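During the second half of the funding period, the structural biology subgroup turned its attention to how the target accommodates small molecules. The most pressing case was oxidized coenzyme A, which had performed well in the primary screen but for which no bound structure existed. We therefore specified the complex as follows and requested a full 3D prediction, including the ligand pose.
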Amino acid sequence: RVLKDDIVAYTQNKPSVERPAPTTQDEAPRTRIVDIGGYTRAMLKTMTKSLQIPHFGYKDEVEMDALMAIRKDLVAQAKSSGVKLSYMPFFIKAASVALLEYPILNASLSDCQEKIIYKDDHNIGLAMDTPQGLIVPNIKKCQEKSILEIAAELNRLQEACLNGKVGTQDLVEGTFSLSNIGSIGGTYAFPVLVQPEVCIGALGRIRKLPRFSPAGEIVPVNVLNVSWSADHRVIDGATVSRFSNVWKNYLEKPHALLMTLK
Ligand code: CAO
């Protein structure tokens, strides 16, 4: 039988449980909780919505040597007009000229999903990495602008975005987008559509790679990879491929852009 005295004796003699001194691993995890605001809040909303769209992905490579030589020649001329000339204005102009052939890629799907809205203006959006986060202002009416005019607009938008002073008018009514992630790094990407646009292209970093010449010799070539995403509800893969071929041709043979001058 267990008597009361037995229990008292047991509890009095019970060895105390030794607890090891807390180590840093046992301390509550150190966390920091911040409100999501500004550009990140806008990104959260738009990207969540965009990923409800079935995306079609298409990738290709572009030989950049001819364009790099031409840009090198033109940098000083642009500078004398107070404009910094990067590759972007060429990518944008080539896209605009190719859009003239494939206007479906500069369209949007109506809210009722029964009509396609074709847009005459090529308001080409540019994903910009800013101290405040991602923002996609657009250059209006690229179909009417020269490469130098597009470069000047890009300079203006870059400065406004860096100073956090980009205007609402620069952010609305985009019709097509490009994302030059290659200015930071990377080869391929999966760009996410900017609603209600139906096509976006991401550009990788230009890399010098071995390729075969027409004579079968191995030659060094500057290669740019492009990754397109399109709204597969209204755009089929063949259309993206044909559009990309035209865009690529204008970059690989930039003198062909002369034929588009008015
Ligand atoms: N490959 C190699 N070099 C590149 C390049 C590429 N794809 N793109 C740009 N460069 C070079 C430029 O030639 C320039 O070099 P120089 O000063 O020697 O001429 C340098 O990189 C910096 O270019 P830049 O960034 O000032 O100008 P840009 O017109 O090429 O790009 C912009 C402008 C706004 C697109 C870019 O600054 C940017 O923000 N890129 C990031 C986009 C991004 O975040 N995309 C992801 C979106 S999804 O989150």
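Two results from this model are relevant to the next phase. The pocket of oxidized coenzyme A is lined by residues 86-88, 126-129, 134, 154, 158, 179-184, 203, 205-206 (CB under 6 Å). The chain has one domain: 57-260.
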